[in-house]
Every structure is written in C-alpha cells, then in structure tokens.
Task: structure prediction
Amino acid sequence: MQTQNLFHALEGLGVTIYPIRGHWEGSAEYSYFVVGISNRDIFKLSYDFKQDAVLWGENGHFWLMETQSEKQIAEGTEFHMVEPGENFQNYSETLDGEKFVLR
Result:
C-alpha cells in the first residue's frame, strides 16, 4: 500500500515514473525510477513514505543516499545496461527484465 501511495504522490508532481525492481545486498524490492523530480521533493517523499534510501541524480551524476541521515552510500556517473554474462550483486531492472547499474 505504501508503494502505491508513493506512486500517486509522484503522479501528482507530474514527473515521469518507471516502475523497477531494485536489488541490493541480496534483497529485492519494487521501487520507482523517477525523471524530473527535484532533490527537495525526492527527499521529502522519501521521508513521508518511510523509504530507507533514495537514488538521486543530476547532470549525469548519481548518489544513493540514506533517507534519515542523508549519508551517501554510493555515487557514480555511468548508466550501464547489464549484458548477458555480466554479474552484479547490486542492480536495478525494469519490469520487462532489462537490468542496469549506475556506477
């Protein structure tokens, strides 16, 4: 229910939303890849909907941040589509199975 409510809040901002599955440290969860959202809005929604972390990017630079502490977990500048035979422990995938990593 929380994920569905977050989706509706994002829709209200008029941003582009891509449902994805995030894989992190052996766990998978449904999430959203959102285009056109401000840093302020992404962190506010992350707090409001009790998300553990947020992946945020601007001008080709990406940060994975803890929501509560805003501590940086990871950062990168490359959007990479995972090719067959490549293995990554931490990655995201579209609901169609296209895998990608930000590194």
